[in-house]
Write a structure and sequence with these properties.
Elements (H helix, E strand, L loop, with lengths): L2 E3 L6 E3 L3 E2 L11 H13 L4 E3 L8 H12 L6 E6 L20 H15 L4 E6 L10 H12 L3 E7 L9 H4 L6 E5 L11 H8 L2 E5 L23 H4 L2 H14 L9 H10 L6 E2 L6 H8 L9 H8 L13
Helix pairs in contact: 1-2, 1-10
């Protein structure tokens, strides 16, 4: 496993981190299987784990808390997210700040997370949604300052809304935000335009989420894919999105090098970008853990292939189904 410095925090984090959404309540998730996968990841050098209260109303956080106890002799970096008070994802310009992140709500859910993790301080707390219309409000800035002074959080971040990598730039300019979490993959390259250069210049940590485009870039989702009843992906891959995503994935299949999977190619595409400090794929199964961590070997995609993949950029706009 290779490591990168996480912005101004000085943390040395594994460039392959662990996204814990899938074990918070997705269909077919299994706690014992999840715990074995988490342990395996630690054994292979993963030291950055991202969760949220919203992943099963604290269930994923509690799984992370158990992991911390099982590996108490190792430094594992913890990241979680405060849900908006209205419990609406993503944030929209019409949502009032008072209905999203008032001070009491921010502090209450930070306490909930600390209790679920079984720790006195979390390394990185994040706003789970954001709209830059709130950026000038001093309440959230003072709340961050208070939580840091009280020793309850070491750093604060924002999880950017899907396909809105610049809706948060004003918040970053306040200097109160230490890290951003943003969708970045072969299709979603827009963060390279404005967000990444700003973060580089101001030493802000960058977490790349959704590296496989919710599964499209694993090569396992096709036009005929049907998700189990109640599976969140069924509400995201509505017919117009499923067809378009599968068609674009089909265009990538001939580009996958011999002895490499599409998922590996997708991760190596992101790893080539030194602005990114850690990637957080979801990986509930042993085989996924082993496959993902094996990409952190310092071997980057050949330049010609990387340029070809850059041409597959897909700029999308938020829709009713782009949670």
């Amino acid at each position: 496993m290779n490591f990168r410095q996480f912005g101004r925090t000085q943390w040395s984090v594994s460039e392959i981190g662990y996204g814990m959404w899938g074990m918070g309540g997705w269909k077919e998730s299994d706690d014992q299987e999840s715990e074995r996968a988490l342990d395996l990841a630690v054994e292979h050098g993963v030291n950055f784990f991202d969760t949220a209260w919203g992943y099963g109303e604290g269930h994923s956080e509690r799984l992370l808390g158990k992991l911390l106890k099982r590996h108490s002799q190792q430094k594992l970096y913890t990241a979680s997210k405060i849900p908006p008070k209205n419990f609406q994802w993503p944030a929209r310009p019409t949502y009032r700040f008072e209905d999203s992140y008032p001070t009491e709500h921010v502090k209450t859910y930070t306490e909930k997370t600390l209790q679920n993790l079984g720790v006195e301080q979390i390394d990185l707390m994040q706003f789970h949604t954001w709209d830059d219309g709130w950026s000038e409000r001093e309440e959230w800035q003072r709340a961050i300052e208070d939580l840091k002074k009280e020793g309850k959080i070491a750093a604060m971040g924002i999880s950017m809304n899907r396909w809105e990598p610049e809706n948060g730039m004003e918040a970053l300019k306040t200097g109160q935000i230490d890290a951003v979490q943003v969708i970045y993959n072969i299709f979603d390259q827009a963060p390279e335009d404005v967000l990444f250069p700003f973060c580089d210049a101001h030493n802000i940590g960058i977490i790349a989420r959704v590296p496989f485009d919710e599964g499209t870039l694993t090569g396992n989702i096709t036009r005929d894919t049907v998700f189990p009843e109640g599976d969140w992906r069924g509400t995201y891959f509505v017919p117009e999105n499923l067809a378009a995503s599968a068609d674009r994935a089909d265009l990538l299949r001939p580009l996958v090098p011999e002895n490499m999977t599409m998922a590996e190619m997708a991760l190596r595409f992101i790893l080539k970008n030194k602005s990114v400090h850690t990637i957080i794929p979801g990986m509930r199964k042993h085989k996924n853990v082993l496959s993902n961590v094996s990409c952190s070997d310092g071997a980057y995609l050949e330049a010609t292939l990387h340029r070809e993949l850059q041409s597959h950029r897909w700029d999308r706009k938020p829709t009713a189904w782009s949670q």
